[in-house]
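Limitations

Structures in this collection are predictions, not experimental determinations, and the ligand pose is part of the prediction. Treat each record accordingly. The example that follows, with pyridoxal-5'-phosphate as the small molecule, is included so readers can see exactly what is and is not provided: the inputs are given verbatim, and the output is the predicted complex.
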Amino acid sequence: MSPPSGSTKELTRADIIQKADAFLMPNYARFPIALVRGEGSWVWDADGKKYLDFVGGIAVMSLGHAPEGFADVVKQQAATLAHVSNLYYTAPQAELAEELVKASFPSKVFFCNSGTEANEAAIKLARKYGKETHGDEKYEIVALFNSFHGRTFGSLSATGQVKYHKGFEPLVPGFFHVPFNDLVALEAILGMRTAAVMMEPVQAEGGVVMPSEDYLRKVREMCTKKKTLLIFDEVQVGLGRTGKLFAYQQFGVEPDILTLGKSLGGGLPMAAMLAKTELASALGPGSHAVTMGGSPLVAQAGLWAFRKLMENGFLEKSRQMGAYLREKLEGLRAIPPVQDVRGIGMIQAVELNVPARPVAAMCLEEGLLVTVVQDRVVRLVPPLNVKRAEVDRAIKILEEAIRQAEKERGSAPA
Ligand code: PLP
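Predicted complex:
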């Protein structure tokens, strides 16, 4: 396949890395490879080496790389109408909103470009609705320790991990945190001023931490009793990642506000906030906006990707493959550094008692991409349609890397 015009194919890996290090902000701890192409569960670097991609752009490429038909949809829409403004109506945006609502709960949709923006919208809506409905003092947001909601100031203030706050204080006032899975702490903090409780149903960046039995249902009951909105951030675990279309459906607990992102645009930047219909009037004309949100280009891509997810049998097959991946990972528990295996569907993690970054680096060397969260956790978020043989290969590489890490620890000077 010939490279698209403007591609940097002629640059070698070393050229790309040198240029990037010279001109890009140093805010990412990048692995030393330069990727140029992807297909299904695989990506290729500038030197032609291929990697099994269990990162997928961090849970974005749920249908794999370059799925058949995607480029045609994008090309056709780009050639027709890429962007106008939310001052006007466009069909792809309206249609995608309709499909999202029909598949979830009676709600209205706001489109934006990134997960953090979807969460900003959720926070703003919760505050405005709280004030308008219950008075000016109802604006506080209770979020959870170990959570991750994004890097802009509202979402960052909701994020319950000090390491992301460092150097950026002061944060937005009115945010409070309690431990995940602790109903007593939550009940104690909820008050007249709490506009919303905001949480990820599964804490993804926090190390793939699962809610304990009944936790989400009890949170829901508490929120309803205290007239507090419940916001689920499904930016990472929504859209089929857990094996159900939405993670809340997995746990049988419906939020008032739901945020989505990552895979929503099929690989193009797109995110959304869905809020129950009765909340929508709080975001009247002029109250909130984003220039590029839900452009015809990304919405058409999103519509195409969403319909793929909804195809008969797609999620069922993904659930089965998620169970297979989990079964294989369970087999790693016997290796000493492995402390835990956890997750759901196509978001799985292995917690180690050694740093995970060298393990990820060894995996990369052997042709497997994985992410590290919370220093000691290897997280796997393959495409939802990953193949069995690809899972087998990934597990083999991961197992070898963990064994190697154990060996190196054993031989390190005390
Ligand atoms: N919320 C969750 C649960 C996430 O995992 C992330 C990103 O990893 C975000 C929000 C932020 O999304 P974005 O990076 O698109 O702003």
